[in-house]
Amino acid sequence: MRTQAIVAGAGMTAFGKFPDRTLKDLAGEAIRAALADSPLNLEDIEAAYMGNAAAGTITGQVCVPGEVVLRELGLGGIPVINVENACATASTALNQAAAMVSAGLHDVVLAVGYEKLVHEDKARTFSVFSGAVDVLDMPGLTSLIDRKMAQVGMKPDPSTAAARSLFMDIYATEAIAHMQKYGTTREQLAAVPAKNSRHGALNPRAQFRAVTTVEEVLAAREIVWPLTLPMCSPIGDGAAAVILISGKKARELGIVQPVTITSSVLMASWDYPEGQESLVFEKAIAQAYEEAGLGPDDLDVVELHDASASSEILHTEYLGLCAKGEGGRVIESGLTELGGAGRTVVNPSGGLLRKGHPIGATGIAQIVEIYEQLTGRSGSRQVEGSKVGLAENGGGYIRGDVAALCVTILKR
What we know:
The chain is of the alpha/beta class and 412 residues long. It contains 15 helices and 12 strands. The longest helix is centred in the middle third of the chain and has 17 residues, at 166-182. Residues 281-402 form the Thiolase C-terminal domain. Residues 6-210 form the Thiolase N-terminal domain.
């Protein structure tokens, strides 16, 4: 979707484990921060797209979570649309909000992603991820994962499976397949969280701010080979919000050098021909570039979905930031790091691995980071001279691929 929506304000909470905070509290903080960052007031909001994926499972709040949040702030009398789309929940809310602005239906729209994943019963938390698949075809999913494991020679211990998300097994098979096909090393996998830890250390809102080394990553507790704990995104809570406005509203407000969403592509995967995988990445990314009139060489900053270390390697390649098979070597060489010699900095926020991954909030948190980078407000992690940024956020898993993918390009 080619859009003309403009970001007028953005805000987010710190990400982390906050057992004593409520969804209303977290979302309210992010919304108030976005309003404070904008020239607008609460009563200016004409519609709200509220993204949450896990409340029904974790807190029991179903059906009207968005209305509950906004009523607490004193906002009503507008359309409130609740959005759920796995880990792509928040980016989907943003996509739909941008569509309404671009269609001329609203001049001021709020998009929010908010989530609580922390629960004393870890099985309940993991059940959120287990539900991001076709639950009526669990035998088929189990058979698919078993086949993928067998193809790469994996023999995981089934007694440890309950202690991790099933997605970790999926990410592990992807990592091993890449290692076998392209010679990617475990040290290159470890270079991803090591790099992102250096970025996350500069982000006051990141869940983890300690710097870790490749050696420490490799020595950490194994989740499922070849992935250790720092190679897997953590469980946490948090919220992020942005306010989108039309060009007309921007002119009324006297906004100069606006940050515009030039493209937002939301796409579901489909059944591919035998032997082909991840065509949704190829198609969605190509469409986003085409609609924005840009390419990978134009990107200054990228926030991508590093749910695991192998994910960042693969998605760096999908986005065209390097050739296929080169992702591990590019990251290990420092080309995508702050201060590196590369064209594009990847995950200056610390990414999901260090900033955190409260799934319903992640997609808009990426947009907050890009927006602040493009407006020169990222402090010691600022990518100097940033004018173009891309956020890539996916979620769920159906028949061998991500269920939903959203790619958003912003330009100042």
